[in-house]
Specification:
The protein is of the alpha/beta class. 34% of the residues lie in helices and 22% in strands. The longest helix is centred in the last third of the chain and has 24 residues.
Length: 459
């Protein structure tokens, strides 16, 4: 769905030099979608600003995965509506709520669903009241180097998320993603490789592969290629660049021997896997529309650790799913204590409108859900903090990401192969570095929670 209100043009001053402010909420997949819109707008000649008050148009890319995320998205839109800028709401929330949202949010000038975000330039031109044509000769050189129009991505960051598929064929009872983003639509391998090469040429030291279910990649393509084949293809395409390749959001039933082999042996692929399990009680997993049980998961974890020595494992679990008993919850705690994941994301069940689980019998009260969530966080953080502390004394290669903006000494932060960007903590760097998008050898000297401190090694 895509609609644009009839709004008066912005002031002549802003129309003469139109700018946009892009606010992104939600997960890395939304970050990629925002980056594509940013690339299109920069190529069209619009300038980007950080503050809504300085913008001709404010674009809010929303998250509607959970009710709380939807509320946060609407609050961000209402906050932006106070500024003197045209207002565009795009992403998951407009896709999920459609015409109802348009009736409720009269402050918004245009709504764009997830499938129509590539129309962002047309929408902005309608709102600003003038068409912008990209003039490479008159555009600042530094600005031109920020984006690669061929792949519709901006470059120059140390880490780039690469969306390898859109949508999902799974029908988990608690998840609204198929309602929002539709069925699985894998990108062709050559398109992914083309984008990867451009991002690496622009400075990216790490590519993080994401999708609603990365392990399902290729099932809808001719010849049914697999995630393992994609990892090998990317590894060969980026040979000699030193680029790290990381996999997030791989579902357990998609982990086979070929993928384990790629994680262990494909050059550049880091020994790391994000494996969302949600629970270990078989009857709850069946109700969720998922497969597995504690025994199967323990066997899979053992295979991964045997097949990929030193692998870092991350998972996601949910507490308080309808029908979860005290016994189920105790089994989950015991399983997580035994599995000893490096990182665990824990969420209370949320009864999302339109999902099957929202109407199931046996709903768990909010206080119990929150209490169980905190207990699991305590259990898993004790394990994760200890595993982080155990790394002190080792020497690692790390990618330098950024300088801490509020540190007067300009402290740099980096991440190692065992740390997924924006998820698993960082390394605070002592000593000189070349700057962002560089690699450095660090001796780890201290740890707190999931963060570490590292000294730059001489030589």
């Amino acid at each position: 769905m895509s609609t644009t209100a009839n709004v008066p043009p912005v002031s002549p001053e802003r129309a003469a030099s139109p700018t946009f402010c892009l606010i992104t909420l939600g997960c890395e997949k939304n970050e990629v979608d925002s980056d594509r819109m940013r690339s299109r707008l920069l190529e069209a000649g619009y300038g980007e600003v950080d503050e809504v008050g300085d913008a001709s148009v404010c674009i809010v890319n929303t998250c509607g995965f959970l009710a709380d995320a939807t509320t946060e998205s609407i609050e961000a839109v209402l906050f932006a509506a106070d500024a003197d800028a045209a207002l565009v709401m795009c992403g998951c929330v407009p896709s999920r709520y459609g015409a109802d949202l348009e009736r409720e949010l009269e402050e918004v000038d245009a709504f764009i669903g997830v499938d129509e975000e590539d129309r962002i330039v047309d929408v902005v031109e309608d709102l600003v009241g003038v068409a912008r044509g990209f003039d490479a000769a008159s555009t600042d050189v530094a600005l031109r180097e920020l984006f690669d129009s061929d792949v519709l991505r901006t470059t120059g960051r140390s880490v780039a998320f690469v969306k390898i598929a859109e949508g999902c064929n799974r029908r988990c009872s608690f998840c609204a993603i198929p309602l929002i983003r539709g069925p699985l639509r894998s990108r062709e391998a050559h398109d992914i490789i083309h984008e990867a090469r451009a991002l690496v040429a622009g400075g990216a030291q790490e590519l993080v592969l994401i999708a609603q279910d990365t392990s399902a990649w290729g099932r809808d393509l001719e010849g049914r290629p697999t995630l393992s084949s994609l990892l090998w293809d990317l590894s060969r395409a980026l040979e000699g660049t030193g680029t790290w390749i990381r996999v997030l959001y791989a579902q357990p039933e998609g982990i086979d021997d070929a993928l384990i082999d790629a994680l262990a042996h494909a050059p550049g692929v880091v020994p790391y896997l994000d494996l969302p399990l949600q629970h270990c009680a078989e009857h709850l997993l069946e109700s969720m529309g998922r497969k597995g049980n504690r025994e199967a998961f323990e066997a899979l974890i053992a295979r991964l650790r045997e097949g990929v020595p030193g692998i870092t494992l991350r998972t996601t679990v949910m507490c308080g799913y309808p029908g979860e008993t005290e016994g189920d919850f105790s089994e989950l705690c015991d399983f997580l204590a035994d599995a000893a994941f490096d990182y665990v994301a824990v969420f209370p069940f949320s009864a999302e409108e339109g999902t099957r689980a929202a109407d199931l019998a046996g709903q768990v009260d909010e206080a119990t859900k929150l209490a169980r969530t905190q207990i699991v966080r305590d259990v898993t953080e004790d394990i994760g903090f200890k595993k982080t502390a155990d790394r002190v004394g080792s020497t690692v290669e790390a990618i330098v990401d950024a300088q801490t903006p509020d540190d007067p000494d300009g402290e740099w932060v980096a991440h190692a192969a065992f740390q997924a960007p924006a998820s698993d903590g960082v390394i605070h760097v002592r000593g000189p570095v070349e700057g962002p998008c560089s690699k450095v050898r660090l001796r780890l000297v201290d740890a707190w929670c999931y963060d570490l401190e590292g000294e730059v090694c001489d030589g």
